[in-house]
Specification:
Largest sheet of chain A: 7 strands, mixed
Shape of chain A: globular
Number of strands of chain A: 18
Low-confidence stretches of chain A: none
Mean pLDDT of chain A: 94
Oligomer: homodimer
Largest interface: A-B, 34 and 34 residues
Structural class of chain A: alpha/beta
Helix content of chain A: 10-25%
Strand content of chain A: 25-35%
Order of helices and strands of chain A: EEEHEEEHEEEHHHEHEEEHEEHEHEHE
């Protein structure tokens, strides 16, 4: 089949990729559309030493199994099914998991992929293909609320107005929190719900005077230098949520974390169902984040476009 | 009055220190005994640019106010009494607080000190002077359980077998957790409750094979290089508690925190009452941690003794 293949930093279109092999309790999915994520760009730069087909934000059509013929999205962690984590229903932390298009598992930038059937969810008609490609990152954004209390009266700052930052702001606003986005592209304020405040320049320097510190600060820039500035923006006993991995170690003064008893919470993948529901109920308006669509044959241009400063979501179609 | 005075790294005994001035709702305390803490040693090296009398782990006798004549210990944060934090009863995070012997407040290495009367607690007869000097650090150790769940079945690792590490191990064991101490002084195992396991060499290198990762890891070494090794010792969705401030920034790879969704929790001062109660009920055996007692006149020797490798608590008496 056709698909992208990544090997030592080179991404190429191949016509001879092996079909995903059918396995009991797995479903083969024909990919309709897939989003390029910052993680995909990091993989190309060498993150995880991944060799194979990247891509993990997708919508497709199930070709076999109980969902055959339905449009589906799929959770990207495939667990062993037997360990304590898997038995608790959380393959996200199975020590032997593979991760679609990221680790040990061929991904979505191809004609077809396979996932455990239990990972798949049918997409309601109210959710378009474009929107459905956002279920994975929106689920990750909504997952913040699984670990910390966010709701009415909770003052949240989202650091970063990239794709993930905007989705985190939408997710927190959908939970009723008071959200401010600290960004660098003033025009993006228009992509956010009206209740979300937008500020430029907050992360570029230490605040000069005393500021009204936030209950929760979400790191969504992926910039290691930003993290060091966040403790000054969160109130004592508040929380910093790390939504991005950085590619190099961060030099950080941890003393303010101790003195102000701040929590730093690492946060990764979320459950798909609440994200799909938020899209179906129009509680998260993601369609405005799509910058362009390319065919797999133009993947090189698509990745170059996605890497351009200020570009939001670029989608690929087989 | 007599007391120690710290100015630009020089600690000297002075006979002409001003008496603590009486204030409404404050109590003057005659110090009986005070412990030298790692923070005091850091202050001498320049931490906080503190000028004045250090010392914050003390037991004394109230000279006025409602506890006059009683032996007392005292919480070290003196709040403004009016802000939201103070009205909630938590002066520990008052933005205008002073901190006894650490910030804006003359400390316990002197004949007398003063604290808000509400900060003081009477010491039961069952608790000796030596033991009472441990109320402050034991309260800090017990405070871990205010922020995270520790109890039967929770596997905790305490990194470090200095004073704070041993107190954290005692505190966690008193809460019923399964505790292991990763230390460097095998003889200290004898100072710990019999239920606590003790291991040498865990922090010096990355574990070679897979290890049974802990639910909670407490950083109590103060060594910035140790922190970077801790994510590998905690299970996915587990917690690292930071009990020490380090004097220099730490270079840390935060990606494992995100991938394994680990929480890093800064933890500082605790409430005194549970600590005093644990001592009175013999649930924490701290007397064995006392290495030596010196008079204020021998403070220089006392600090030199406390700084020696492998020495636990050194006490000062006016």
């Amino acid at each position: 089949m056709r698909g992208l293949h990544l090997d030592r930093g080179r991404l190429s279109l191949r016509g001879d990729l092996p079909e995903p092999s059918p396995r009991p309790d797995w479903t083969v999915v024909a990919v309709r559309r897939a989003g390029i994520c910052a993680t995909d760009q990091a993989l190309v730069r060498g993150y995880m030493d991944f060799v194979g087909t990247p891509g993990h934000e997708f919508v497709g059509v199930a070709l076999d199994g109980p969902l055959r013929g339905r449009r589906v999205v799929g959770e990207i962690n495939a667990g062993c099914g037997e360990c304590a984590e898997c038995r608790r229903g959380d393959a996200r932390h199975c020590a032997s998991r593979s991760v679609l298009g990221i680790f040990g598992h061929q991904g979505a930038f191809a004609e077809r992929l396979a996932l455990p059937t239990r990972n798949l969810l049918a997409v309601p008609d109210a959710v378009s293909d474009d929107e459905a490609t956002f279920v994975e990152p929106l689920a990750a954004a909504l997952h913040i609320a699984d670990d910390i209390e966010v709701g009415p009266g909770v003052r949240c700052l989202v650091a970063g107005d990239g794709k993930l930052g905007l989705l985190c702001a939408m997710a927190l606003a959908a939970r009723g929190a008071e959200v401010t986005v600290a960004g660098r592209h003033a025009e993006r304020a228009a992509l956010l719900p009206p209740s979300v405040a937008y500020r430029i320049g907050m992360l570029e320097s230490q605040p000069a005077g005393p500021i009204d510190r936030f209950d929760v600060v979400v790191e969504a820039t992926g910039n290691p230098d930003v993290l060091a500035r966040l403790p000054a923006l969160v109130r004592p006993r508040g929380t910093i949520v790390l939504k991005t991995t950085t590619e190099r170690p961060v030099a950080i003064d941890l003393a303010p974390l101790v003195v102000d008893e701040i929590r730093l919470v690492g946060s990764r993948c979320g459950r798909f169902e609440p994200a799909l529901q938020a899209l179906a109920e129009r509680r998260a308006a993601v369609a405005g984040l799509v910058a362009a669509r390319y065919s797999l044959a133009d993947a090189e241009s698509a990745f170059a476009h996605a890497a351009r400063r200020g570009v939001l979501k670029v989608l690929l179609e087989p």
